[in-house]
Amino acid sequence: MVTLTQDAKDKLRSLIAQEGQDGAGLRVQVVPGGCSGFEYDLSLAAPVEGDEIVDGDGVRVIIDRFSVPYLLGVELDYEEGFQGAGFLINNPNASASCGCGKSFQA
Prior knowledge:
Blueprint: E1 2-4, H1 6-19, E2 25-33, E3 37-45, E4 52-56, E5 59-63, E6 74-81, E7 84-90, E8 96-97, E9 103-105
């Protein structure tokens, strides 16, 4: 379903340890919004009933039921660069995205 690069796994481990949220993972949600129709919402959270949980070498990605079909085959990466740092989502289900890369169409 969702795969994580080594950089993403390392950053998630660091963030979870820093926040002291044992049992938490990265919640990845697709929500309506943005100029292309859908946006990604990322947060550290504990899973709730009905969530799909993807384990990437001990790092959990938590996905709600609504978001599952939009995230099939997604690769999650983490990148630090001149213009900042953050998680990058490579989504093969996106048929189009906006110029800023923050929203997409499926």
